[in-house]
Amino acid sequence: MMLSKGLKRKREEEQEKETLAADAWWLDPSLPAAAQAPPAAASSSLFDLSVLKLHHSLRQSEPDLRHLVLVVNTLRRIQASMVPEPTLPPVPSPPAAPCVADSLLASSDAALSASMASLLEDLSHIEGLSQAPQPLVDEGPPGRPTGGSPPSLGTLDLLGPATGCLLDDELEGLFEDIDTSMYDSELWAPACEGLKPGPEDGPGKEEALELDEAELDYLLDVLVGTQALERPPGPGR
Amino acid sequence: MAGAGGGGCPAGGNDLQWCFSQVKGAIDEDVAEADIISTVEFNYSGDLLATGDKGGRVVIFQREQENKSRPHSRGEYNVYSTFQSHEPEFDYLKSLEIEEKINKIRWLPQQNAAHFLLSTNDKTIKLWKISERDKRAEGYNLKDEDGRLRDPFRITALRVPILKPMDLMVEASPRRIFANAHTYHINSISVNSDHETYLSADDLRINLWHLEITDRSFNIVDIKPVNMEELTEVITAAEFHPHQCNVFVYSSSKGTVRLCDMRSSALCDRHSKFFEEPEDPSSRSFFSEIISSISDVKFSHSGRYMMTRDYLSVKVWDLNMESRPVETHQVHEYLRSKLCSLYENDCIFDKFECCWSGSDSAIMTGSYNNFFRMFDRNTRRDVTLEASRENSKPRASLKPRKVCTGGKRKKDEISVDSLDFNKKILHTAWHPAENIIAVAATNNLYIFQDKVN
Questions:
Q1: Residue A204, in any domain of the structure
Q2: Chain B neighbours among A 150-209 (CB < 8 Å)?
Q3: Which segments carry the region annotation Disordered (chain A) (predicted)?
């Protein structure tokens, strides 16, 4: 059961079934917990509230991980309860009159998963950068000696040549996770198809534009940094 | 009535009557953020009581010796030492400010005249030595009484300096700084019964330290997923067993506790025991997970039980039974129907602590409206008391409080909707041997004692 696009879930099938069964009670209106399983409208406002909390949390410079995880898990529960029939195949075209919940799901989905994913990834990358020089901290002998470089050196150590390798690996990891919204702007819409097929289904994907050679050359030039950004010629908007 | 037990009290005999003893802290309505108390801890003898606050300060109170000429100042706590433990820091690489708030203080057992404690903020643990100086040397050869150096060529005779008494001075000095070992926020520290090592836990990892060694620690638990997107659970608290130096527990945001044995492997990612109470299907809600998140875990002094605090209850577990707790005490069940509002105002994320009485016969935890709750495990009775300036006459007995949950509100009862959710008692401590408790109410520290008969 995919709760939201873009969020990678590497669960075992049994675990998925278990989760489905565990959460399926949301769909049973006869349960006495109805007092706390509010109707769709209330679910939707709870959903909004949770999304707000999540965004607020993500905006903190250093989010409270416990708070974040609890809000995300609660949001998943609410999201699950708002999907009417999780076992049906996905509807090919959007419904004629989408309910509030669906439109919320659609609009917030990509942004939510993207920002959540990027934040959680950032946390792990930032950790790699700021940790004192122990590139093998997760390997090596049992008991994993870690931590505690002398306080005077601190994070400045990483800027030295000795740890160049570590920094390179982490830089690569950082770039892997670039915010795809930059490709969704008007200027870049023609580019995203050809250059970054990406896992997320960004909103720009529906526009299937053809890249001609001139546009491709132009874009490559910009990437290399030799040309200032300006509106490309041709069918671009 | 409140819990029985404690040294000298006949079991099940006298009912305890809690009385106001002292209150520390400013009286103003306007509370400075820095003055908010963030941790309270008695030392092993109970003679010292330490508090840490959001401003990074530690204040230690010492119990006065009983004085025959002033029988009413029976064991009062007065300020012994105050020092700045942690300062705000700036992590330049991450562009983040590191809060100076003291998350936890833990005392070391006393081995000589000096006292030692560990204090921690989100990132750094420090070992502080608190020592007394009541003598000073006079009659140095190389310098004058006012400290000026004497000209060595003018010195014609040698004298032996003599020690003279001086006013007591209490000095706190940082002896060790354990830094750079935690990426995430430290929530717990716990001194081992071997008195040589201690653990520190953050959201995803637990490290083991030797008190003498600051440049390295051993990582013994790591629950960080390879892919941070898969993160669904964090560590919320951890503690060493009081007697078995190889055993510790850690609790999670999903309401589980894992007991680990360091003898079975150096990496304790696999637990020896797993404590979780199955969810009651009839009380499920969107907030089930949040309210099951454990905010504190404490072993009993005996080492046979442990106690967990989740949002609405306190549970006592027998370490030999993992399937369910042996006791469950409701702290403020009347909040169950208000979870949505409490989620909205974030109160549902408040982290309450809990503590055992010295004899393990009673447990205590805080609530809202400056209420705190005590449960007597023998008599099965519980009581709600309030820490407030209004009830602060010397040796005045505390009157039990009651929250009205519905229907007609009786006199002296308070309705759920009138509770002040900004007045939360998150931190409490119980003297290790006597019936003396310390309760932190925002920026005030209340000390209550039982009425001596």
A1: no
A2: 150-151, 154-155, 158
A3: 132-152
B440 pairs with which residues across the strands?
B427, B445
- Choosing among A8, A51, A64, A124, which should be mutated to test the B contact, i.e. which has the most B CBs within 10 A? A124
A45 touches chain B (CB under 8 A): no
Collect all residues with Cβ–Cβ distance below 8 Å to B116 and sequence separation of at least 6: B107, B108, B110, B127, B128, B129, B130, B175
In order, the DSSP letters of B342-357 are HHHTTGGG----EEE-
* A106 located within any domain: no
* Any domain includes A8: no
Predicted confidence (pLDDT) per residue in A30-79, tens digit = 444 444 444 566 788 999 999 999 999 888 878 899 999 999 999 999 98
What is the distance between the alpha carbons of residues B138 and B438, in angstroms, rounded to a whole number? 42
Q: Tell me the pTM.
A: 0.72
Burial status of residue B448 (CB atoms within 10 A of its CB: 0-12, 13-18, 19 or more): buried
In a domain, A60, yes or no: yes
CB contact under 8 A, A74 and B220: no
Residue contact A121–B228, C-beta within 8 A: yes
Q: Which residues of B touch A10 (CB under 8 A)?
A: 227, 230
Q: Is A124 on the interface with B (CB under 8 A)?
A: yes
Whether pLDDT at B19 is above 80? yes
Domain that holds residue A77: 46-82
Chain A residue at shortest CA distance from B341: A46
Q: Categorize the per-residue pLDDT at A195 as very low, low, confident or very high, splitting at 50, 70 and 90.
A: very low
CA distance A197 to chain B (A): 20
Asked if A69's CB is within 8 angstroms of B234's CB, the reply is yes
Alpha helices in B204-359 (DSSP H): 288-292, 339-344
**Per-residue pLDDT at B123:** 96
User: What is the rounded CA–CA span in Å between residue B214 and residue B201?
Assistant: 16
Which ipTM value was assigned to this complex?
Answer: 0.90
Burial of A162 (0-12, 13-18, 19+ CB in 10 A): exposed
Cβ separation A148–B289 shorter than 8 A: no
B231:A144 CB<8 A:
no
- Show Cβ contacts of residue B229 under 8 Å, excluding neighbours closer than 6 positions: A7, A8, A116, A117, A120, A121
Measured between CB atoms, which of A61, A127, A145 is closest to B95? A61
Domain count, chain A: 1
Give the confidence band of B412 by pLDDT, cuts at 50, 70, 90. confident
